Amino acid sequence: MTHLGWPLGGLVFGAVAGRGGEREVCFVEQTGSIASIISGLTFGALAVPVIGESWTPQLVVYAVVSLTAVRMLPVALALAGAVPLYQPHVPPA
Hints:
The protein is mostly helical. It has four helices and no strands.
C-alpha cells in the first residue's frame, strides 16, 4: 500500500493548499523548462558521442523529420476541428 503514498499525498496537499496562484504557475513552468534542458543536455552528452561515428544521411533525415513533422502532425490533427477561444478584432479595411 506504500505505492499509493505519493499520488495520495499530492492529492491531499492540493486539496488542502488550494488553487495555485501566478507565482506557483511560474515556478512550475520554470522547473519544467530546467528539467527539459537538463535531460536534453544529459542525453546529448551521453548518447551523441556513442553513436556519433555511425551517423548516416538517412539517420540525420529521420531525426530531423521525427523532431519536426512527426511531432506537429498529431497536434494539427487534434486542432483540426477546434474553435479558437479568442477571436482578435480586425478593423475593416
